[in-house]
Amino acid sequence: MKPFHVATAAEAFAAGVLARCGCDVLVQYGANQPEYDLVATKGDRFLKVSVKGSQDFGWGFVQGYKKGRSYHEAIEAWARDQSPHVVYCFVQFGDVALASLPQVYLATVAEVVRHMKSTRNGHGTTILYEHHEYKSGLGSGSVDTIPASWRLSQRRVNDLMRRSA
Fold it and tell me: Could you tell me the CATH number of the domain that includes residue 78?
C-alpha cells in the first residue's frame, strides 16, 4: 500500500475496532485535523485518538525532533508537542493477509515516552518498533517489543476510558 492507503486503512480499522468495543466513534475528515483523528466515547467518557498506521513493523514519529538532541531529548521534545489527553492507536499491517486482522495497540503519550526511552538498551530511538532485534551498535543484543499491555482489548479500552474521566 502507499502511505496514504496505510493511513486511511488504519483510521478506518481503528474506528471499526473501537466500535466493536462498544464505543461511539466520531471520525474527523478534512485536511485541517487537530491533534487527533477520531473520538471514541462511552457514556460521559471519551478518548481523543491519534491513529498511526504502518506496514513495516515500525512507526517513526520522533525523527523530526532529533537534530541537535540526544534520543531522550528528542523523545521529550516530541512529548511536549503532544496533548497528554490523546491516546495513540498504532495499527500494524505488515505481513497481514487481506482477509486477516492487523495488530492494534493503544498507548498514552506518557506510556510511549517511557517505552521509547527504554528502547535500544535504554539509549532510546526515534522509531517505535513492534518487534526489533538489534544486531550491532548501542542496542546490540537487545530486543524491543511493544508492551503486551498496549494490545487492543475491551479491558484496555475500558482502562483508558476510566483514566480519561
Answer: 3.40.1350
Residue type, 156: R
Number of compact structural domains in the chain: 1
Residue closest to 86 by CA, chosen among 12, 139, 35, 128: 35
The angle at the Cα of 115, spanning 101 to 88, to the nearest 5 degrees, equals 50
Residues 117, 124 contacting (CB under 8 angstroms) = yes
**Angle of CA points 129, 131, 135, to nearest 5°:** 95
Identify the CA nearest to 71 among candidates 109, 146, 127: 127
pLDDT in tens, the chain (165 residues): 898 999 999 999 999 999 999 999 999 877 667 789 999 999 999 999 999 999 999 999 899 999 999 999 999 999 999 998 999 999 999 999 888 899 999 999 999 999 999 999 999 999 999 999 999 888 888 999 999 999 999 999 999 999 876
Domain span holding position 108: 3-164
Q: Cα–Cα distance between 34 and 8 in angstroms, integer?
A: 16
Classify the C-alpha dihedral 141-142-143-144 as positive or negative. negative
Give the span between the Cα atoms of 37 and 127, in whole angstroms.
Answer: 21
